[in-house]
Amino acid sequence: MLNPRPSVETSFKIKPAEYRASDVALLGKHLWSLLCPELNESQRVYVSATSRQGTSHGLFSVAFWAALGEQQPILITELVVSALSLEAYEAGPDALDSWLSDEQILRQGDICTFTSEPMINENGLGSNHTPLQYRLDMLEPVIQGYARKGETRIILTLDIPSQPDEAGSDSDAEGFEIDEGFLAPAILSSSQNFMSPTSENKPMTFECQPMAESKAHPYDDCTLYLRTTDLGRVGGLNGDWVVVHSPGSNHHRLVRVVAADYFVTSNGVVQGSPVLLHNICPTLSAFAPSNLSLHPSPFGSRQPTVPTAKAVTIARVTSPISADRTYQSAFLGSLKAYFSNSKRLVKQGDLIAVGLNSDVDNTTFDETEQPEVQDVDQKYMTPPRADEVVFFVITNIEHDVMSGTEQISNHDSYLDSTLGELGCWIDPSITRLIQTGGEHCRIPDVGTYFHPGDHYGKLISLCSATLLRDAVDYNLHLSVLLKGARGTGKFTTACWVAQRIGMHILEINCYDLVGENDTKTEGTLRARFDKLEECSPCILLLRHIDGLAQTTQALETGKESVLTAVLRECIDNVQNSWRISGHPIMVFATTAEADRVPMGILSCFKHEVAFEAPNEAERHEILRSLLAESLLAPDVSLSKLATETAALVAGDIANLVQRAESTSIQRASRISNCSEADVMAAGVAMTAADFETALDKARVAYSESIGAPKIPNVSWDDVGGLAAVKSDILDTIQLPLEHPELFADGLKKRSGILLYGPPGTGKTLLAKAVATSCSLNFFSVKGPELLNMYIGESEANVRRVFQRARDAKPCVIFFDELDSVGVMDRIVSQLLAELDGMSGGSGADVFVIGATNRPDLLDPALLRPGRFDRMLYLGVSDTHAAQLNILTALTRKFRLDPELDLAHLAEQCPFNYTGADFYALCSDAMLNAMSRKAEALEAKLALLNSQPGLDDHPHPLTSQYYLAELASPEDIDVLVSQSDFDLALRSLVPSVSQSEMDHYAHIQQRFSRPPE
């Protein structure tokens, strides 16, 4: 008699189906000893879900191998816990430390239940034990480990979940949802279900959608998925065979239908593999939804009575990969593996897609030989990693007609099946496969599907016009230039378009074409274009087209390069090839620096598509896609990350995620001081601090000389005074942000604000505070940074500044020292053009703030309405109350002496002190206090060193050793006193003289509004 297996009841989580990352669960010693009393190295463990009432009826069971590893649990340094009831919150501070510190394994997201001590009521009787529940919201530095009393910091919060209605208060209300899809597989076989003539004569029509990924179904190549309710409308059961055809077509075939409510979310929709949908309807449009008709077959769930093919002729679809003989043995091996796994139901004209690993060691075949598939070496049967797809087409099927012996009510469908009209089986033990030459045809999209964006949708629209039947007669050959910064997705978008329209893509790096002279470059370019005819229909992608401008031969003034004429001729020859073969060829080119591409080369392309930095919504989608399978801490907000990553392109965001992941692993390894294996087994979640660190590194890495936009961290507490100016600026900037509908109907917004006044009055600080309060990115540019000695470069710098601001919108551009560029005609003209372009409704989320000490030097055109038309004067404080506000803001992080009176100090200051002067005053006072503290420390050390040495301490004592080992808090704290300020005040010289103040007062009268 077998010994009973030990069982342990515990809690675990089931992650969604799309979560594919591996997971590790650490078990405590007690739980492992219960599961494995003999402490074997590995043990087969069964996990079954039971109802919450503790019944033993398993709803499902999973078996797996659990191994006793050498990983050690990691100490949790910080633990954020949420109490799920008020009683738990009140009992937590006293007992939670002891409850969680018994070296049990804690895991982020778990709910722990503890029992409180019995309460004594008025009668002296103890009440029942009250269960207290806590949720472990966040663990640091890893997501699972153990807590230790005195070393783990526990943060307790209150989070009472909403109470369900009394009608639904049963504990099993949140259990498994049992619907018709749950019962469908258990119904009797549909072979006994005889359909009525009504259901047979009225096929149901559905909208077909391609699946984004394989569902690992054994009949995935002949299976359509739909909702359970739609399955009932068809008149079939789960797993039945039905007849499908496209409306208006006479081609029918058999497919299996499976209920899949978990990913088919809409009624009236069927989903299938892209290859299957292409085989059902070869004219399936990629630009408009198509329909399919389904009606029951006479076979039900039994294997259809269709003939088995004796011989099948298969031809490869020519593409850059299939036309390369070095991969011939590899893709033939993949084809053999495809048919060897199981019987396949195919029809003449079907496409077959097989994966190919392009890194395997391939053998070159003689192109005159046409090997049979059975002769391929066994080592190519299962490629370890498929990174390419090769398509084959079935050109001929030889089979015998089956004799009908069954009594079937639907004679038409049964007759079609026996004649092979609905398909034939390919049995690897019977059918002989013969591979012939190549065929030219379009292919379905077998990649990941994406919703069309701006550039993607434009390319799809252009390509769809070229694919029309009469496009070649109208000379609609397509050539497109994709321009944009590196990392914006030009190459990726081109690949998506090729997948969507069913065409191959041939990639050429133009820098690889450049030879020692133009003659060799011309020969290489012509040879690459000649290869296009073998791969048509296809898209030629010329990457880095600006590389063709790299020539070693000097050109005469006004004369085009030889490569320009060659490129134009090659593109024209593509049109002739299209007329002969009937298969279109499209030419795409990419460049990150369109300014460096000669005008002759640019003229070769009929269309241009500009790629810009993604907006906030697009950045959110990119982050969500990149972090779909990553562990994120609860404090990570994708919305906040999308805002903070303004001006970053898709490539930068991908690099940011990699940096954050690396930072999280380094942080966990540093804090835990454990091996990398232990850290990875415990699991590391990326926190908001990891993303902040990665974002700072990314800004440093990608910032240019003009800076990188970012949201500053300056609050209004850092700004003393300037209340009236603050109100005017916020009224100008907040209105377009909070009420954009006002500007959608043509209302013009103010383009810019000009801050002018004496130096040191807080113009830059004010602009940063405005950007922080409105959550705007801040782009600071000093006027001299825009100047360049080369003609046209200064204007280009201005354009780049505004383009970066548009990429980072909502954004504030702060032009400091505007007077340095406001007198140069060319820069002023470019500034005027950019400001005029922002005054419309489309520019309502980009703001310009200028600062200058000399507004009288600016070009008057900059100060006209629609430009810097709001001028605000920032002067010195003219009251002691305003000076007190400045002193309070500057000293809010100081440790002040209790006897210090800032109001009395402000009364001692003259009225020609600017904000910069007050900053110098406070800095000098802090320096005086630190000097005084240092002198007191030196005196104390001299006294200690004059006495006998202390035990266990060196003699004489140094200041560094004393501060590290012996200093008390009083020795370290620096208090700024009245005497420190008095000393600083006596030595302070105003930065603006009285005569200069009079000059600025005159300027204010000149540019200020006339009194109303």
Automatic annotation (TrEMBL):
<dbReference type="GO" id="GO:0016887">
    <property type="term" value="F:ATP hydrolysis activity"/>
</dbReference>
<feature type="domain" description="AAA+ ATPase">
    <location>
        <begin position="476"/>
        <end position="615"/>
    </location>
</feature>
<keyword id="KW-0378">Hydrolase</keyword>
<keyword id="KW-0962">Peroxisome biogenesis</keyword>
<dbReference type="InterPro" id="IPR003960">
    <property type="entry name" value="ATPase_AAA_CS"/>
</dbReference>
<dbReference type="GO" id="GO:0005524">
    <property type="term" value="F:ATP binding"/>
</dbReference>
<feature type="domain" description="AAA+ ATPase">
    <location>
        <begin position="749"/>
        <end position="878"/>
    </location>
</feature>
<keyword id="KW-0547">Nucleotide-binding</keyword>
<dbReference type="GO" id="GO:0016558">
    <property type="term" value="P:protein import into peroxisome matrix"/>
</dbReference>
<dbReference type="InterPro" id="IPR056995">
    <property type="entry name" value="PEX6_4th_dom"/>
</dbReference>
<dbReference type="Pfam" id="PF23315">
    <property type="entry name" value="PEX6_4th"/>
</dbReference>
<dbReference type="Pfam" id="PF00004">
    <property type="entry name" value="AAA"/>
</dbReference>
<dbReference type="InterPro" id="IPR050168">
    <property type="entry name" value="AAA_ATPase_domain"/>
</dbReference>
<dbReference type="GO" id="GO:0005829">
    <property type="term" value="C:cytosol"/>
</dbReference>
<dbReference type="InterPro" id="IPR041569">
    <property type="entry name" value="AAA_lid_3"/>
</dbReference>
<protein>
    <recommendedName>
        <fullName>Peroxisomal ATPase PEX6</fullName>
    </recommendedName>
</protein>
<dbReference type="InterPro" id="IPR003959">
    <property type="entry name" value="ATPase_AAA_core"/>
</dbReference>
<comment type="similarity">
    <text>Belongs to the AAA ATPase family.</text>
</comment>
<dbReference type="InterPro" id="IPR027417">
    <property type="entry name" value="P-loop_NTPase"/>
</dbReference>
<dbReference type="Pfam" id="PF17862">
    <property type="entry name" value="AAA_lid_3"/>
</dbReference>
<keyword id="KW-0067">ATP-binding</keyword>
<dbReference type="InterPro" id="IPR047533">
    <property type="entry name" value="RecA-like_PEX6_r2"/>
</dbReference>
<dbReference type="GO" id="GO:0005778">
    <property type="term" value="C:peroxisomal membrane"/>
</dbReference>
<keyword id="KW-0472">Membrane</keyword>
<dbReference type="InterPro" id="IPR003593">
    <property type="entry name" value="AAA+_ATPase"/>
</dbReference>
